[in-house]
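User: I'm preparing a small set of examples for a lab meeting where we compare how different chains pack in three dimensions. I only have the primary sequence for this one, and I'd like the structure in token form so I can line it up with the others. Please keep the answer compact; I'll paste it straight into my notes.
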Amino acid sequence: MKEQYPLYLQWQEVLEVLMKYTERFPKSVRHTLVDRIVKTGLDIMALLVRAIYSKAKRDYLRQINVELEVLRTLVQIAHACRYISTEQYGSLSKKVIGFGKGIGGWSKSCGA
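Assistant: Understood. Below is the structure token output for the 112-residue chain.
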């Protein structure tokens, strides 16, 4: 059922990009910044699945918005430290912003 949700598929693509980009980060930040970025991305996926199957969708959608903001911040840090290029940052940001707009629309449709 979750595969019928475009946001689920969209976030799956974002996760794939996150995994690809963070593979190349220096070893010195793999257990700090990379772990946080990947964990946050996976947490968003878990919250998305919970929102799909839950009757209390608004609560999960709010949590997704908070986690998205955390992820944006972590990606900004990675860009500032030059672990990802400006091109990668722009591409990833567009995907995350598009996903965030989708979450916002879903929240509004739930009366949030």
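A couple of notes for your slides: The chain has one domain: 2-109. The radius of gyration is 14 Å.

User: Perfect, thanks.
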